[in-house]
Amino acid sequence: MSETPLIADLSTPEAAPLSGARIGVVTFPGTLDDRDAARAVRLAGATPVPLWHADESPQALADVDAVVLPGGFSYGDYLRAGAIARFAPLMGKIVDAANSDAKLPVLGICNGFQVLTESHLLPGSMIKNDHLKFICRDQVLRVENNQTAWTNSYEVGQEITVVLKNQDGQYVADEKTLDELEGEGRVAFRYVGWNPNGSRRNIAGITNAAGNVVGLMPHPEHAVEPGFGPLTPEGCEYSTDGLGFFTSVLTTLVGGSK
Length: 258
Prior knowledge:
By secondary structure, the chain is an alpha/beta fold. Helices cover about 20% and strands about 20% of the residues.
């Protein structure tokens, strides 16, 4: 596969020593954004590793330090979005690794977030947007938790602009679960300005208690380099706010095993 040339060098001096970090990007039938996620990983300074959903080998995750479940329509979103992908052989291994003492960092984006809820790595569920239409727009998010493996490059209260595109993007949970997420600081992101899909309490992304698993509906991988992606609210430049997700996990790995 040929490489698309970069239009800007987004690497940082801190990223150079992390070239050994390897981030797996899972592809399911119907995945759309695996190459975009792999590009974001590369721009952050790590090496993307393609992972296949049907890999049953014991060493399927042995060569990666973290995993991204990218967006798309896995298995056509039949039954429920993410409901079939949840049973993929590789997902069983990801669930075990995320819940292990090693706490494998896992990021679920859009359909990946849906898979995480179906896999019970994250609570709640995703249903159709309250307006029952597919939506695609630039979306402002507010960072609520910067203590996770995927958000430590941000500041609490910081507003970032990324892309939103979904039709099953309404996050729902019972009031007890929502109260627990709020009380434990596990709401990672909220929508700012407008709730585009009716998600409870304007929730755009959440984390597990350990902070190694994060899911969000918008797409940070589409806001990682100048000249592409969403415009900032001022409309004068392109947002690269999504890159922080991928530099965050590298910082996490450096602080741990790297």
